[in-house]
User: Fold these one by one.
Assistant:
Number 1:
Amino acid sequence: GAGVSQTPSNKVTEKGKYVELRCDPISGHTALYWYRQSLGQGPEFLIYFQGTGAADDSGLPNDRFFAVRPEGSVSTLKIQRTERGDSAVYLCASSVGVFGAYEQYFGPGTRLTVT
Amino acid sequence: AQSVAQPEDQVNVAEGNPLTVKCTYSVSGNPYLFWYVQYPNRGLQFLLKYITGDNLVKGSYGFEAEFNKSQTSFHLKKPSALVSDSALYFCAVRDMVDSNYQLIWGAGTKLIIKP
């Protein structure tokens, strides 16, 4: 079956611009996660959704970052007034459930470069 | 506090030799343990997990991992390494008891298999 997909695969933007990153999870997965990964490091948690609601957004670095999942499937991560420090690979993952032993399935990521 | 340690930044193994990538963890209760692999410019792929039961867990691509409760370790192993196994490997843990759903990630170990 289809895995997690993310678009675009690469995004180059100028400092100060607004960007949207999209994630399409595996069908039937209720939990969706956003992570940020810098080169050679492990994933840094940003936010997770259970259904339509953002159950925990404690990992979002500041109020320039926002994410939505209006119909409980596709999610969009939105970054306002981008800064060079936002440059990273943004990973999306989904899982059948949130708690317990459920593994997460990751998309290929969106490489964001802020110039 | 929950934590995961991958004590080796890089592991070098000759093709055909056995490999081990180390992981130790700290949780307050019993752990759910996971291994993921990341190939260059790709998202993270789930390899295997330990939930309960047999301490030796078998996963994808011929990998296995051994859970050792007394040593709080979950080392990844493969009897005979392939050049194609060269990648970045991440260990992650979730506490069975703690209601925190988040996976705690190690910093990753770069595995290099030389022909």
Note: The two ends of chain A are 37 Å apart (CA to CA).
Number 2:
Amino acid sequence: KQEVTQIPAALSVPEGENLVLNCSFTDSAIYNLQWFRQDPGKGLTSLLLIQSSQREQTSGRLNASLDKSSGRSTLYIAASQPGDSATYLCAVHTGGFKTIFGAGTRLFVKA
Amino acid sequence: GAGVSQTPSNKVTEKGKYVELRCDPISGHTALYWYRQSLGQGPEFLIYFQGTGAADDSGLPNDRFFAVRPEGSVSTLKIQRTERGDSAVYLCASKPTPSATGELFFGEGSRLTVL
């Protein structure tokens, strides 16, 4: 059974700091991995989608890497801003029809 | 539409009542998913539709939960005899095709509170 774990559960950093969020999954047989952002009381906004054949994806200040064999992904946020404060979720698609989510990392960027 | 639309955004009901939650996926998206998210947790899979049929309903917690998608577009999640434990945010997502490699797009969710 696929399980997704995100570490840390919560993170508080000063503005301008570079940071890394971690995601691990137990079954390496995935089709893709997707990182989402969720603001309080809101739905999920897709940030980056990495296919199983890819090693990384970049969008602006965000870079996500994927090491399928070790069951890990990282989301790197450069030069963090208070507007980056949100919960970040990773999700893996392992075939069938389900996408399995981690519990998220709650990020707070202090001005 | 431009994005996945869910109504109502908030629903407060009493224990034992019947509730319907609606999802309007992105136009042309054939794959539709329902998820449930409890406070502090990631979304949990409930059911997946490909077109009009439920291809996987293994995430529905019990027979009080049912979902339909009669015309392959709008979907309704129905909850009978609601219980306090059903309180959560119900999220809908869609994909252009059922491809395993496709990107999921989510709505804003329907927050259900059962008193």
Note: The CA atoms of residues 33 and 92 of chain A lie 4 Å apart.
Number 3:
Amino acid sequence: QVQLVESGGGVVQPGRSLRLSCAASGFTFSSYSMHWVRQAPGKGLEWVAVIWYDGSNTYSADSVKGRFTISRDNSKNTLYLQMNSLRVEDTAVYYCAREHLRYRDLDVWGQGTTVTVSS
Amino acid sequence: QSALTQPASVSGSPGQSITISCTGTSSDVGGYNYVSWYQQRPGKAPKLMIYDVSKRPSGVSNRFSGSKSGNTASLTMSGLQSEDEADYYCCSYAGSSTYVFGTGTTVTVL
């Protein structure tokens, strides 16, 4: 079945780095654009970043631009989010999500991985 | 990239209809027919309920419907059921492959 599984979350000090992974299965990963979306504790969803199906283009939210980098390895069916210079306000559950092939929506989501930035 | 504006909470009795609004700008909601809606239950990942303003994915009840007028999109739930209690988020394409979510609405079935 179609599935996304995030990993790599944890507790990290401000200013440090962390890399999240999202393993995809059950579909042709290399055909889909992929996104990261986060949700701070008790807060709403926030779009973080997108990478095109072939990795040729990436876009990110202003709140993470210059600090977070989205990437993918289509040979490993895996999406990544490299997070540098982490801030307390980056504390959130991070979800990876698949963009529908034909429509501009996020039709498949992972279960999320929790990142806590704290000293 | 400001969040779209949704009411914090909406409630209704079983069987009633409720509508959640989602207000953006001409750069997002008003500029594209790419508004989607997501249901999120506590501790769970979001689930796609509506895409392209008014289309329902396979498996989503026809009690859910979407519409848009100008810079405001709406999600209507008819025949409200207890299982509809959840948080709902709108999301709009905002150009250059970017997206923006709404502030979220908690639906309570009285």
Note: The mean pLDDT of chain B is 96.
Number 4:
Amino acid sequence: AQTVTQSQPEMSVQEAETVTLSCTYDTSESDYYLFWYKQPPSRQMILVIRQEAYKQQNATENRFSVNFQKAAKSFSLKISDSQLGDAAMYFCAYRGLYTGRRALTFGSGTRLQVQP
Amino acid sequence: DARVTQTPRHKVTEMGQEVTMRCQPILGHNTVFWYRQTMMQGLELLAYFRNRAPLDDSGMPKDRFSAEMPDATLATLKIQPSEPRDSAVYFCASGLVLGDRAGLGAEQYFGPGTRLTVT
């Protein structure tokens, strides 16, 4: 079974600074997707970024980028120029490509605080 | 602006009562997922539908929970009878999967959730 681990329950960053959230996963599959979701106090789950395992290039979405290390099974999220609106829970998630079970497996989340 | 809708947003009920949560997936999406979020367990899958057929409900307590898709625009999750341990936020998510590869349409789009409190 796949597992996703987020070892940082809480992180804090100063506004305009850069922060990196860690995620590791365990899987026997060779092809899969990884995601970062943001959950602000409104509880809405918002997709931040996704990475296809077969792509070596790290995904980037504006101020959000990932460092995907397939051999190490590591998938960290970097937020540059942090803004107050970035404060939220961040969840790392895994989804297999060929397995019949297409649901997401989530990590336990990292609460990010942004200090003004 | 296509989005997943869920009703009700909040529900407070007494133990033993029936609870029905509804979800309208994004038009054209063919997969629907029900997740439950609690402080203790985090986010966990309850049920998964593709083309309205249930493919995975292994995470759902079968004795009291049931999930259905009466049509392509409505998914329901019922709890009967409800218990205090069912208190959680229930999310519905939808996506579009084409063929056997999940690559096309790997994203899942979440609704705002239903916060259920069972007293």
Note: The radius of gyration of chain A is 14 Å.
